[in-house]
Amino acid sequence: MDNKLAVTQLASIAQEARLDIFRLLVQAGAGGLPAGAVGERLKIPASTLSFHLKELSRAGLLSSRQQGRYVYYIANYDAMNGLLAYLTENCCAGQASCCLDVACGVEEKELQS
Questions:
Q1: DSSP secondary structure, 33-69, as one string
Q2: CB 3.0 to 4.6 Å from 56: which of 14, 62, 71, 79, for a disulfide?
């Protein structure tokens, strides 16, 4: 990943509503959610939601698919993981103790069990 892409992706989630949308879609899993459901859950009007979804999609953090009359939005996990890897590359001068390995909300101690 290069700096320009990292800045674009970070800028797209550096706004409260877009961060909430992205986190909700990450939680929703690979099936994603229809745009209307995202708006309802987060209490975001359709016109505003459309703008935010476009910004997240433009940054490569979301994809969408048409299913009947609904548009489903899905978090791009590869892009998210790429951004996280870029941010933590060479973390703590190679000392793993200061960089937690977090996967899907499972705490490190649960991973070690």
A1: EEHHHHHHHHT--HHHHHHHHHHHHHTTSEEEEEETT
A2: 62
Helical H segments across 13-45, by residue range: 16-28, 35-42
Taking the C-alpha atoms of residue 45 and residue 39, their distance in angstroms, rounded to an integer, is: 6
Distance of CA 93 to the CA centre of its chain: 27
Count other C-beta atoms under 10 Å from residue 111's C-beta.
11
Question: Would you say the C-alpha torsion 72, 75, 76, 77 has a positive or negative sign?
Answer: negative
pTM across the whole model:
0.84
**Tokens coding 66:** 């048409």
